[in-house]
User: Fold these one by one.
Assistant:
Number 1:
Amino acid sequence: MELGRKLLNIQEIDEKLAEIEQKEKKLKELEEFLQKVAEKSDKLSERVDKDKKRIVGLKRDSNRLENEIEKIEQKYLKKEKEIYENNGFSPKELESIQDSIEEMKKLKNELEDELLVAMDNIEDAVQSLNKYHGRQLEVEKEHRKGKKKLLFHSESIMQRKNELLAAKEDLEKELPGEWLDYYHKTRIRYRNKVVVRMEGNICSGCRVELPIYRRQIIKENKELQICDLCGRIILPPE
Ligand SMILES: [Zn+2]
């Protein structure tokens, strides 16, 4: 019977739409997950930028220290040369020059210690930068892959859904309103399993034997029958 077949077709479409709904839920979850991945990537990127800036500052500091050390060194070497080449200094002058050389050497040592600390800091910052940059690249890759997957599946699911909805709309136009209403009302209760086949003498929905007169009408396949017990629409065996 044409009516029964069409109701069955609608039911098949509704089953497929329910599957699509599940897939959409999964995609929604993937989308939320990707949102978190993007946030993670942003945080790592901030961290990497911070390290980069820190390294620039530290390098500037260490260059400045190196220049200062160099200048001081030249200054006291010059003084030492003066002492070496000129014996005309009075003992007092000599003492004062030697004191200032000592002062400069002391300062140079202090600056060299500072330079060592700065270089250690640069090394630490570079290590940190490499670590976070590596992670950032991994996370970005994960995000790209997920996004690609999401787009691909979203598009194919959307297309499939539209096809099914269009087919359902066409079918619904061909069905009498009261049967369509009955189908929709009942399918919520039975999760899209409203239209069932008669199996032997029983309704395959509730597994209860059907009265003889119903079985007869179902077999003749001229009029749709509803199971007295469960309310499902019963079609003749295939
Ligand atoms: Zn039944």
Note: The chain has a mean pLDDT of 95.
Number 2:
Amino acid sequence: MLRRLLFLSACIALLSGCATQPPLPATDQFLALDADPRVRYEPGAEAFAAQVSSLLPQSIQQVEAVHARPFAAPVEVFVCGSADCFARYVRTPNLSAAMVRDNRVFLAPQLHGREAHRLQPILAHELSHLHLGQQIGHYTPSVPAWFHEGLAALAANGGGADYATDEQAIAAIRQGKMFAPEMRDTPAQRHTAAFWGLDVYIFYRQSMLFVRHLREQSAQRFQDFLYAVQDRQDFDLAFGNAYNMPLSEAGDRFRQLLNPPSITANNE
Ligand SMILES: [Zn+2]
């Protein structure tokens, strides 16, 4: 009976992952880095793994500082030395350089090649997803996509949103193109860039600017909100309690700040 109950609760905990993704293929062929077994690598990618290991302490610290909490479980990073390896574990290998699945960060070979300059910011971005996911489930729709991505990009100093600039993100807002922060995701519909008709990097950049704006409004309110989200409180309620306004109003204020209405009426 106990065993059945445990199985049932494990399934409930994994439900969102089970429903949307096939099981993760075996990772037996990865080797643990001698100097840092948190990092595992496809045979041949030891130098890449060593580099990841050297960046890990700083990246973990960066994420824990922004999330204001330590990781809830050990960090595991899997380093792919070949495109085939990465494609086995990641559903959109051509769109992503990294992804979290089943509590593991997977990194693509180009982060040790043509996109080596992105390795640290992308690692930090994924570690933010891992950190939140360890507490509330990975990419859970109870937290909107803009928050997952905005927090991760903020924790990574722009990592993951690095192919769009602040100026480009703000220009889109001035053209009336921005996500609506009050829109809740569902298991069937995550409101990501495509839904809003935005370039993916513009969406990530806008998400980061909005999350940063919330933190700049009040570090204390932001921390209260972030703690509540990490404690699995209802997202809208957590925001309302911390900021004393609904997300729709916070979105309106943000847009107005970046795109103030004309004041020519006062000069008549
Ligand atoms: Zn992300």
Note: Residues 1-19 have pLDDT under 50 and may be disordered.
